[in-house]
Design brief:
2 domains, 4-stranded antiparallel sheet, homodimer, 15% strand, globular, Aspartate Aminotransferase, domain 2, Aspartate Aminotransferase, domain 1
């Protein structure tokens, strides 16, 4: 049968990265293309011990249906966790547990957008979020990224435009794909602008805990006296993405609506992942675990930046990063980026062209996204050397 | 901040059952209101053994990101499982793994419905599905249920109407809420009618394996020469709902679109649940496990029907069931059903009024849904005796 699809399907597109990754099972490939956390970073021993203890208890505690909002003790742990450094859960806010933070992106657009409504976003931005917004029929309007965060003039123009955006999407820490971190001053300015124009903010913070140098900066949500920020805290980089668990904090009213949207989608987040994470918070020192993670990422990032300094100085540029999983490498003007990416892939080095992360994928982009969390140290050295050879051959 | 919600939010409603259940943690309550599988039915020992063996292996195998379609070995197992009794996965079909079968309902409406488009459904029907369709902006049109399946005349009228439904929703085995099973003849007729009118079928089969008496009847999907049936096989009743795993089989083209919708929602179903179920299929005899489940449900259903025959004969009627988790108890004309439900709750017996499952919740309904999988045998006897006392007092 030939199906007659809804208008939303016409706007949907598969993530070229996730499609690419399926063809990348080849162990000979050096992949700087993915966004997987380092497998060394999983607290695997602790997860195994907790899981076995849980499954030795009453089966229904892990296996039965649970409530849509999330396992209540984990919600309590999440509130404590989210407020331990700065207050991010404010009076009038509530926390729910979602199946990864992508679900927050999808539900946010479902709850706030009718077909054709505008969503404003950092540009470039996380492709999964852009695709989730597109799949809900939203029209994306990009706001140009700078190394210290979005261009405030561009943001003000977008927020003042008619029609007004339904919300503004941002990753202030170690942004995907650029690795850029929004400065404290710009965070305050972004909040003030959105408050002035009455535009909700969707603040996505998957990488914030992965700061390996420099000072932590409070999230925009910390300034949220008006409950206009929805804050998504993925647990994928702290625990394990296979679990599909994230925390979402925002206005109690909006969180109630998101709960109903979730009820009609997956009913609740898998209980095993929720209970394992809850017990980890109970039994272990989360900050000691995060300190260990930071060590893993510090070493990988250092290795990548050293290799780039060694191999690519004078050939390409990047803004050094203080955390996260990505670097944004900019090739000289005139260098054919798709050609460079294709030639690297021929030499078994995978990269994602920067244009994949743009609101307008057809716009010119001289950068590529380079992931340093997945490859080994040797792969980093070898892969960057190949990138140099390819650049020199062009 | 006051959020300005999309039109879809106005159509959303929380499941009154799931809201009810949150207030039902009281262990003194006899709940015939839920839809939880019997906790005795979980293969808890096997799950624990498998889980520990998996978590003792390479951490990334269970904890890392996976692909959206589902863990490939589980997809292969699912195809074998779905085709072991009848062929349900046909040439031109594909199978994906979803986070419970509710996700299939939500994505099906997202992929096929623009705002206001019609979805045809058995009436009454599973409330979670109706709410998922509503949340995508669909307009529901009900088709009256009879004890051997939907009224064919009513279905033909709905399928011939203008606008034509975008799809037709059915639970042919031990339907929720009625417990009714669609006869073989009606299944063939439903397929022929939908084929004739070019209307896709969403066949939801969460309870099919829970047949404790009588002969298995092939699913509508078994006749699907045209790939017009999307078939959802929940694993919640066979393994454990807390895992949030279901199989979905349908036209490869539609499954591709559903994969993109899922990519933008939860990226993939939690890997632990997928890998545990995969290994269960590999190491254990699924049919022996299902035979044990059927024994558990047979005993509970027998106890409930015996109690009703003993206590309610001459006072209320039901159609005996051959499987599943629910009975549809019809009270005498003139009996005030909401009053009966309220009085039972005062006496600590919880039931769901039948009107909750109607497309038009304001329409009159003389029935209540009675779940027999959750309560113990003693609770069944005691609860039904209380129902008799309440009926006699009215």
């Amino acid at each position: 049968m030939q199906f007659d699809y809804s208008n939303k399907v016409k706007a949907m597109r598969p993530s070229i990265i996730r499609e690419l990754l399926k063809q990348m099972a080849d162990p000979g490939l050096i992949s700087f293309a993915g966004g997987n956390p380092s497998a060394d970073a999983f607290p695997a021993k602790e997860i195994r011990e907790i899981s076995d203890a849980l499954l030795a208890g009453p089966p229904a505690d892990v296996l039965q249906y649970s409530i849509t909002e999330g396992y209540p003790p984990l919600i309590a742990q999440a509130k404590k966790y989210l407020n331990r450094q700065w207050q991010t859960v404010h009076e009038g806010d509530e926390v729910i547990i979602t199946s990864g933070s992508s679900q927050v992106m999808d539900f946010m657009a479902k709850l706030l957008c009718n077909e054709g409504d505008v969503v404003a976003t950092e540009d470039p931005a996380f492709l999964g979020a852009l695709n989730a917004f597109r799949s809900q029929g939203a029209t994306l309007v990009g706001v140009e990224m700078e190394p210290d965060g979005v261009s405030l003039a561009a943001l003000e123009a977008v927020l003042s435009a008619n029609p007004k955006p339904r919300f503004y999407y941002t990753i202030p820490n170690f942004q995907n794909p650029t690795g850029y971190t929004t400065s404290l001053a710009k965070r305050k300015a972004v909040y003030a602008l959105c408050q002035k124009h009455g535009v909700p903010i969707l603040e996505d913070n998957p990488y914030g805990e992965l700061r390996f140098t420099g000072e932590d900066i409070p999230p925009i949500k910390a300034f949220d006296t008006d409950n206009l920020v929805v804050y998504a805290a993925s647990m994928s980089k702290i625990f394990a993405p296979g679990m599909r668990v994230a925390f979402c904090a925002g206005s109690a009213d909006l969180m109630g609506k998101m709960t109903v949207a979730k009820q009609g989608n997956d009913v609740h987040t898998n209980l095993w992942g929720q209970r394992v994470i809850d017990r980890f918070f109970e039994q272990y020192d989360i900050d000691a675990h995060i300190a260990r993670l930071r060590g893993v990422y510090r070493e990988k990032a250092r290795r990548m930046m050293d290799a780039m300094d060694r191999e690519l100085a004078g050939r390409a540029t990047y803004v050094p990063v203080e955390g996260g999983m990505f670097l944004w490498l900019t090739l000289p003007a005139g260098c054919n980026v798709p050609g460079f990416v294709a030639k690297c892939l021929e030499r078994r080095v995978a990269l994602v062209p920067g244009s994949a992360f743009l609101v307008d994928e057809a716009a010119p982009c001289q950068s590529v996204r380079v992931n340093f969390s997945t490859p080994t140290g040797e792969q980093i050295d070898e892969g960057v050397a190949i990138m140099r050879q390819v650049l020199d051959s062009m």
